[in-house]
Amino acid sequence: MLEASILTTILVGFFGLIFKKNLMTKIIAMDVMSTGIISYYVLMASSSGFFTPILFQAEGIAYADPVPQAVILTAIVIGFSIQALMLVGVMKLARDNPILDIEDVEKAYGQSE
């Protein structure tokens, strides 16, 4: 059930990224998709165990692997910085085109033939 909800989150973000025409909704869809992907990796990393080896010193307990957790923490920070950079770009585009429709932006900044 948890895997299905994570897959649904990823697909909602993916289809929002493809089918929405507004740049702000595309950024939000990208954030939703990355949240689903990070949730999936956290779920896979915790499948071996839920306990940390630092706090529990008992024998025979399945420990969680700390390496994927560190990688996911790095992915969250990189995703946040990319999202901030995209929002700054959209703010600059909104000066000339406040509707932020992707087709209007492509017409305004597209290559002249």
UniProtKB/TrEMBL annotation:
The transmembrane residues are 6-23, 35-58, 70-90
Cellular component, GO, one term? plasma membrane
Which InterPro entries does this entry report, sorted A to Z?
Answer: CPA3_antiporter_subunitC, NUOK/Mnh_C1-like
Q: What is this protein called?
A: Cation:proton antiporter
Q: Which organism is it from?
A: Prochlorothrix hollandica PCC 9006 = CALU 1027
Q: Keyword annotations for this protein?
A: Cell membrane, Membrane, Transmembrane, Transmembrane helix
Q: Where in the cell is it found?
A: Cell membrane
Which Pfam family is one of this chain's hits?
A: Oxidored_q2
Which topology term describes how it sits in the membrane?
Multi-pass membrane protein
Query: Which family, according to UniProt?
Result: Belongs to the CPA3 antiporters (TC 2.A.63) subunit C family.
Q: Which domain of life is it from?
A: Bacteria
